[in-house]
Amino acid sequence: MFVTFEGIEGTGKTTQIARAVEHLRENGLEVETTLEPGGSRLGRELRRILLSMESRDLTGRAELFLYLADRAQHVETFIRPALMRGAAVISDRYADSTVVYQGYGRGLDPNLLHRLNDTAVDGLWPDLTILLDIEPETGLKRAFDRNIREGKQNKEGRFEAEAMDFHQRVREGYLTWAALNADRFAVVDASGSPDEVFAQVRDALDRALAIRQS
Ligand code: TYD
User: Residue 139 sits in a domain of what CATH number?
Assistant: First the structure.
């Protein structure tokens, strides 16, 4: 089973992923977690470039192909082998991030991005994508506080530094894209407490587990 988590900055993805892992393990699954960008050796180099403030001059197309290179390497060297072994894989972001950030956010054509991603991942799309949805004002405040706490505002601050209307477009783009792919998306209201959010995440996981077993 392949599960991805998506959403704007500060939705609490990390916390919810940790709890999702625990839940799937309680259901007897072997679980691998991973992330994008950065889920392979090459990806870790690309992540540094992509998220650094020093990359403010990256063009939109160059950025796009770096994300796709990260993903192609990640799928072939990590995700697909884990799935073939029978493990469940949970990824913090995947192809939908590109469709939404580079497409709805930066103005590239979402349908073209869908096709380019399909090539990059060689047809491997998630069984379930959990979209943690939150108002950008709330999410960014959470992300900003976290970056200060972790002392990484300069290293990984490029996206948090985008204007509010970019984050608004990304949030709305996610909701549009989720509605267009309702067969695999579960939209979760991420504004509540971690327990409230996880109750919705758990329901989505349980539905996917039931489908898998039927
Ligand atoms: P990350 O530190 O993983 O952010 P978060 O904790 O919010 O997941 O940074 C990933 C950033 O890269 C995030 O702002 C979204 C952006 N991104 C894209 O623009 N396109 C992509 O394809 C991916 C995977 C991420």
Answer: 3.40.50.300
Residues of the chain above pLDDT 70, percent: 95
How many structural domains are present in the chain? 1
Residue 214 Cα to ligand 1 midpoint, Å, equals 34
Contacts of 41 (CB under 8 A, 6+ apart): none
5 Cβ below 6 A of ligand 1:
no
Q: What residues contact 187, with CB distance under 8 A and at least 6 apart? A: 131, 133, 175, 178
148 contacts 180 by C-beta, under 8 angstroms: no
Nearest to 181 by CA among 90, 91, 113: 113
Say which range, 51-60, 69-78, 85-94, 151-160, has the weakest mean pLDDT. Answer: 151-160
50 CA to middle of ligand 1, Å?
A: 9
Verdict on whether the full-model pTM lies above 0.85 = yes
Mean pLDDT, range 41-63, rounded to an integer: 92
pLDDT at 155 over 60: no
Any atom of ligand 1 within 6 Å of the Cβ of 51: yes
Domain containing residue 101: 2-213
Task: Write down the pLDDT at residue 13.
Answer: 96
Q: Is the CB of 94 under 6 A from ligand 1?
A: no
What is the number of other CB atoms lying within 10 angstroms of the CB of residue 78? 18
Cβ 98 under 6 angstroms from ligand 1: yes
